[in-house]
């Protein structure tokens, strides 16, 4: 049997945590291993519990989700995936959390099936939750530095194609099907894109693609 995806829930609203806990715990392949009411508790709990995914509210009173994300990524050698949970999809806080290194985005009003899918998706790590509102925010933050980084990267035509499909949220398997190549070939191209852009992960590469204007929001 495959090990379940372990999840740490972080939200200052107890009712939100209880709802997420009930939805996720009902799945045979997901286990909620802990809860916290503020971002200040995240780093100690991550070190103790070693969750695969942290589902974290972006706005909290003592330490928000942006700083908590940065703290975890700085201090934990093999950090968990971080799924930002928020009320507003066009929230600048969400965008900053993604820039800080969060791996995905989930609205609190999402349906149970969407919540479960989001956790599984970010745990797998080969596709993105990057909705239209966040793509527009990224494009609005276009800057010369991002454009210069993209130019220096000198991506090949196939790498550019892979990055565009990554920006649309396609998984490695979906990209392989679209390009009629093997999944391992796609993984090689993705690694090359990340390396050339100096990106930690897919999220950072996609943000660079939008901020540079290489990809336009739809």
- Helical amount: 40-55%
Shape: globular
Share of β-strand residues: 5-15%
Instruction: Give a count of the beta strands, DSSP E runs of length 2 or more.
Output: 5
Distance between the termini: 40 Å
Specify the number of helices: 11
Enumerate the spans where pLDDT stays under 50 for 5 or more consecutive residues: none
Mean pLDDT: 88
SS-derived structural category: alpha/beta
Kindly report the spatial arrangement of strands forming the biggest sheet.
Answer: 2-1-3-4-5
* Largest β sheet strand count, sense and barrel closure: 5 strands, parallel
- Radius of gyration using CA atoms only: 17 Å
Overview of the structural elements:
The chain has a five-stranded parallel beta sheet, sandwiched between helices. It contains eleven helices and five strands. It is of the alpha/beta class and 218 residues long. α8 crosses α11 and α9 (172-179) crosses α10.
Short description:
With 218 residues, the chain is of the alpha/beta class. It has helices at residues 14-25, 42-49, 65-75, 92-100, 112-124, 132-140, 144-153, 157-167, 172-179, 183-197, 202-211, and strands spanning 5-10, 30-36, 53-57, 81-86, 104-107.
Blueprint of the fold:
Elements: E1 5-10, H1 14-25, E2 30-36, H2 42-49, E3 53-57, H3 65-75, E4 81-86, H4 92-100, E5 104-107, H5 112-124, H6 132-140, H7 144-153, H8 157-167, H9 172-179, H10 183-197, H11 202-211
Parallel strand pairs: 1-2, 1-3, 3-4, 4-5
Helix pairs in contact: 3-4, 6-11, 8-10, 8-11, 9-10, 10-11
């Amino acid at each position: 049997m495959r090990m379940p995806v372990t999840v740490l829930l972080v939200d200052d609203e107890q009712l939100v945590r209880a709802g997420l806990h009930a939805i996720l715990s009902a799945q045979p392949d997901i286990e909620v291993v802990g809860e916290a009411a503020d971002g200040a508790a995240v780093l100690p709990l991550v070190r103790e519990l070693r969750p695969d995914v942290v589902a974290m509210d972006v706005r909290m009173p003592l330490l928000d989700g942006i700083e908590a994300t940065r703290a975890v990524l700085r201090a934990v050698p093999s950090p968990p995936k971080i799924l930002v949970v928020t009320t507003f999809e066009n929230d600048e806080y969400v965008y900053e959390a993604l820039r800080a290194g969060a791996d995905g985005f989930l609205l609190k009003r999402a349906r149970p099936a969407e919540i479960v899918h989001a956790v599984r998706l970010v745990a797998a790590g080969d596709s993105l939750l990057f909705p239209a509102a966040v793509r527009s925010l990224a494009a609005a933050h276009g800057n010369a530095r991002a454009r210069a980084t993209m130019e220096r990267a000198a991506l090949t035509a196939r790498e550019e194609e892979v990055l565009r499909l990554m920006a649309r949220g396609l998984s490695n398997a979906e990209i392989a099907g679209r390009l009629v190549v093997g999944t391992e070939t796609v993984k090689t191209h993705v690694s090359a894109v990340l390396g050339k852009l100096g990106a930690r992960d897919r999220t950072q590469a996609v943000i660079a693609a939008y901020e540079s204007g290489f990809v336009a929001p739809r």
